Amino acid sequence: MSSASHTTQDTLPHQLDDVEVARLRADFPILERRVNGAPLIYLDSGATSQTPTCVYEAEQHFYENFNSAVHRGAHSLAVEATDIFEQARSDLASFIGARQNEVIWTSNATEALNLITYSFGNASAGLGGEAARKFALGPGDEIVVTELEHHANLIPWQELALRTGATLKFIPVDEAGALRMGLAGSIITPATKVVAFTHVSNVLGTVTNVPALVALARSVGALTVLDGCQSVPHLPVDVKELDVDFMAFSGHKMLGPTGIGGLYGRGELLDAMPPFLTGGSMITSVTMEKAEYLPSPMRFEAGTQRISQAHGLATAVAYLREVGMERIAAWETQLGQRMLSGLASIPGVRVLGPTGGAQRIGTAPFVIEDVHPHDVGQFLDSRGVAVRVGHHCAQPLHRALGIVSSTRASTYLYNTTSDIDALLNAVSDVRGYFRVGK
């Protein structure tokens, strides 16, 4: 971290607390804002996290000192920019337990997931040669997702099934939103070629049983694709321990800039996959008739890259590492439990998601009887409390829960217990304000 407000890792307490978090908050100037006359209480990090000063200073420093194209020029600026770009890749790979050549830069997780599906589609069309045949799909093949998925990990698979003739299946949730894992073994069959699922539900904050789903996929030889958007920012994640084949993540949810995300893939798989986008910087040779492609990651990074954003994301990763992912996860669990129990005690409030010890991150989704979530959001905003309202790009899950939309409060390392109390106080006034439930 680049702020004088911090102590070193060696002197940090074992667990985060409000005192330490107050020091961290000094790195996030936006948290000093007032909204509608009230102090900003930012509880929408599940959508986009706030960015510490060191991250945007890193981007500015790049532009002021190193701005140049990477992997192309032989002059000093180009060499320095390339070193910064590839060091960022190395830092991010280390953060998730991957090798450097196993991380591909994308604009966001949505692009990362589309990269996989379009590459598999290209393999299905016969591109990529013999090495790519393992990714080809056709009639009789199956793709399995879950009813928890964000649209970004659902619609690309729907489209791939339509293009290839494969069948799309899903593991349903129960009435509380928990995956029906007892059905998974019959849904994942020898015809299954891909199992794509979220690590943490973006709506409910519940943690999926990754080992069980990976084991089922492995038993039938299926590839696994993990949506890590809500896990990489909030939990210690090691892709090798998780044993997944691919994982998508997004920088703007983990203190990084917008416009940068990534895809992890096993090196041997990425090298065998046909490219998604084609053009400059991802080829070895080109004639007027054909082209030969570089190995991963370059074969998936056509054109001018997100250089300053990658540097900014690497700076965010360094910040998260210094605070400590175990400490962040424990603090958010504490905040999440405070939210969930507090909301459940307010008359007319229904907290969504399974109970009974389900592992969750610091996210609390809820509905208020007789008040539309958009009205809830506007009322909370009038108190300075920023939350997310709507279907959160997960319409099938909301439909399974018997609702159209919900309100979601989501925490991060810069939130305090007083933030949670401000949310609870505001929520407790919603029904009275709208004169319902009397």
TrEMBL record:
Record's function text: Catalyzes the removal of elemental sulfur and selenium atoms from L-cysteine, L-cystine, L-selenocysteine, and L-selenocystine to produce L-alanine.
Family affiliation: Belongs to the class-V pyridoxal-phosphate-dependent aminotransferase family. Csd subfamily.
Keyword flag Metal-binding: no
Residue ranges constituting the Aminotransferase class V domain according to the UniProt record: 41-423
Annotated coiled-coil segments of the chain: none
InterPro entries linked: Aminotrans_V_dom (IPR000192), Aminotrans_V_PyrdxlP_BS (IPR020578), Cys_dSase_SufS (IPR010970), PyrdxlP-dep_Trfase (IPR015424), PyrdxlP-dep_Trfase_major (IPR015421), PyrdxlP-dep_Trfase_small (IPR015422)
Pfam annotation, one family: Aminotran_5
The protein, known as: Cysteine desulfurase
Catalytic activity annotation: (sulfur carrier)-H + L-cysteine = (sulfur carrier)-SH + L-alanine
